[in-house]
Design a protein that fits this description.
The structure holds two protein chains of two kinds. Chain A has eight helices and no strands. By secondary structure, chain A is an all-alpha fold. Chain A has one domain. In chain A, 48% of the residues are buried. Chain B is mainly α. Chain B contains three helices and no strands. In chain B, α2 packs antiparallel against α3. Classes of the chains: A mainly alpha, B mainly alpha.
Chain lengths: 256, 76
């Protein structure tokens, strides 16, 4: 139960964050250069990701579970620590917060400067930028969904449901707003995803290496608690060193 | 050749990311865990300790890079 809840939450948040970034790129190119080629590019990337998941999913399921947990857990741990490190540095004032409005304006300016083809031909600039944005942002999510799914019983269904829920919510918000989702507390989401990926990565990789955790699934909560306390302490230290005030949990939508 | 280089670069960036110390540290910690567990000794504590140590090391490296970047930047 604990694993399934964590799994859904992690896949949902990770998919949500990456989808917001992909949506920013698609919106900027679509608004500036037109929607036809941009949407064809986004659709082609989604199709390519679906083919990749369809091909890799069954192949990964045939690997012995301990080997899978060791490799998958190790990779999730590396990903998780990178996300967490960046989120701590951003919250500590050592890296700029990723501002979707600024990213949108940058993409829009670049799209406006690129040359155009005729009105009936495919606009390759829009197609390529949109394809690349959706494919690259989606690749990490695809990896998380596949590996989470493969390393746990019924995991594929849970992770896929979480990804679908995130897709519907982000796409719905994008269609309603038709502007970058700049009010999303992006760093708080990345901080949370970093914590969850690192927790699962630590748990699974150690199990794959032959460890039996005291308290079995309950150890997940203990690892998460340890990481949360350590990360918040690191943010506090960094902010003090930078001469910044302590973070208020309600300021900027709880941006950590 | 350029495409192979770009392909390898992409996977390095995708898996290893900004700090190679994290990837190497995780590999070493997992090896150590497997070694200890294989001898029948309790090994569950190794990964949590290694993860906290790696996070601290990586943050310290980032701060060092950040302060040396600022020191190299000329005065406006």
């Amino acid at each position: 139960m604990t694993r399934s809840v964590f799994l859904f939450l992690t896949a949902f948040l990770a998919c949500g964050v990456e989808m917001v970034e992909a949506l920013t790129i698609v919106l900027a190119v679509g608004v500036t250069r037109g929607w036809r080629s941009t949407l064809i590019g986004a659709g082609a990337a989604t199709l390519a990701l679906a083919v990749l998941i369809g091909a890799l999913g069954p192949a990964i399921s045939s690997v012995p579970i301990d080997t899978l947990r060791l490799v998958v857990g190790g990779l999730l741990l590396v990903f998780g620590l990178q996300w967490l490190r960046k989120a701590i540095l951003r919250a500590g004032g050592y890296k700029p917060l990723h501002d979707e409005a600024a990213a949108f304006e940058k993409e829009r300016a670049e799209a406006g400067e690129a040359s155009r083809g005729g009105p009936s031909t495919l606009d390759w600039y829009s197609f390529t930028v949109s394809f690349k944005g959706v494919f690259l942002e989606g690749l990490e999510v695809a990896f998380i969904v596949i590996t989470f799914g493969a390393a746990q019983h019924n995991g594929v269904a849970t992770a896929a449901a979480a990804a679908a829920a995130a897709f519907v919510i982000v796409l719905g918000a994008g269609v309603l707003v038709r502007a970058p989702l700049s009010r999303v507390p992006e760093n708080t989401l990345k901080f949370t995803v970093g914590l969850l990926l690192t927790t699962f990565g630590t748990f699974w990789s150690a199990e794959g290496a032959g460890v039996s955790w005291p308290g079995e699934d309950g150890a997940l909560l203990a690892i998460l608690g340890l990481l949360l306390v350590t990360s918040l302490a690191a943010v506090r230290l960094l902010r003090r060193e930078r001469g910044l005030p302590r973070l208020s949990p309600v300021r900027r939508g709880g941006e950590a | 050749m350029r495409y192979i280089g770009a392909f390898l670069r992409f996977w390095y960036d995708f898996i290893v990311g900004d700090d190679w110390v994290i990837a190497l540290g995780v590999l070493i910690a997992l090896g150590l865990t497997a070694l200890i567990a294989d001898r029948g000794v309790t090994a569950w504590w190794v990964m949590p300790v290694a993860v906290i140590a790696l996070l601290a090391t990586s943050l310290r490296r980032a701060l060092r890079e950040s302060s040396s970047d600022r020191a190299e930047r000329p005065e406006p």
